[in-house]
Design brief:
The chain is mainly beta. 6% of the residues lie in helices and 52% in strands. It has one domain: Porin, CATH 2.40.160.100. The chain contains two helices and 21 strands. The longest helix has 21 residues. The protein is globular and about 65 Å long. About 10% of the residues have low confidence.
Amino acid sequence: MKKFWIVLLSVALIMAFTMPVCAADVKFSGSYIVQGYYDNNRTLMKEGGPSVTDTWQRLRIQTEFKIQEGLSLITKFDALEKIWGASRNVGGTYWTTYSTSGVQGTGSGEAENIKWQDAYVNAKIFGGELAVGYMMTGAWGTAFGDYSDYSNTPRIKYTYAVGPWTFLAIYDKVEGTQYYATGGPAGNVGNSQYQVDEDTAAYRVAFIYNWGKGNAGLLLNYIQDSAFGNARAAGQNPNPVTDAGWKRVWYVYDPYVKAQFGPVYLEAEVIYAAGKTRKYETGGNGTDFTKDGLSGYVGLTYDFAPMYAGLNLVYVAGDDAGTADKDESGWPGMIDFNPMLLLFNYDLARWNGKVGPNGGVAMQGITNAQIAQVFVGVKPMPKLDIKASYAIAQADKDGASVNWQSKSYGAELDLTATYKIYDNLSYMVGFAYLWAGDYFKGTVSGQTLDNDYLVTHKLTLTF
């Protein structure tokens, strides 16, 4: 009998402790993507260029634990993000040359195939909403300029909405830039070979105005980056490093607009960065690098159902190699905006690396580019969307070396057909043909190029 009461009491205690947790409202959302492709001639070689056939996938799960009204804990992770059939324990650069993307890198193993992206508290407080923790930080306005696929960093964000206005105040601590050491900083005092102030932080304020058929906003950024001023010793992470005596200080202005005018949809965004890419400290040995980088995008779509047509114009400034004390390059990142299937396509580039011969040209995100694209589509039935586009792309500035052969990236024709099998499940098939431009010759005047084509299909599930 005594054992019975002990067991009963134990069950009662377990229920008492777990009931508050069980009472929490849990919501799941996410996506599952599988994409296969055949890239016929990625090195753009005239004869004997290698082809690539691969399939990649990613499972993304977001969970919201509603603790009580107005208070939630939100988490997100990616799992099994990999090439089908590839060993998870390979090292080197096989997985991706875009190391910040968060997919498999040097020495990756089974444990790193589940990557936690977000973990933060969301609370309604003082008439607004406060979010604190690790969360996605690379999205604002239109998809142009965004890098949300891999940007999950510590953030404190306060959002306040009143009428059609929304105001935001944000503090970001950039991942991978904070100094730390198990022994503490005490041993580094007075040693010029150590840099304690190696960190990066961004302070942002923004507002958004909403109306019936659109919205517009302005994001102001102050970014101070001390990590770039240090020459990290090979294989040492964290420090020691050598203090180079300079910091990066940027002021970034980012307005956007999205609006519907009858059958015409317009979206546009401009990103202008000023300040100093290198700002030497007092007594520092070196010349400051001034920052003066402009990026911009305009997209127009005219809907005359069942057809539609439109135009995309993209500009991302390149850095002029002739101005040694000035950084004119446009906003880095640009990975969420993928107007083409082959050129500047983030998913294709991160798994296959560079495009072209002679070591190739990195095309992971839009940089140093001017792009004009026209497109037309038809929806013969509500669940089917067929689209064709043609784009011409060229570099804004010559390549980094002298005697660069051309600014032309070439022209690309894309054809896609997307069918909604269910409301949350779609299947896309696509074809792309690239007429390669002479930019890919680099400085090799005698290089002979050939064109490339891509065949792809993609299954996307959202829930």
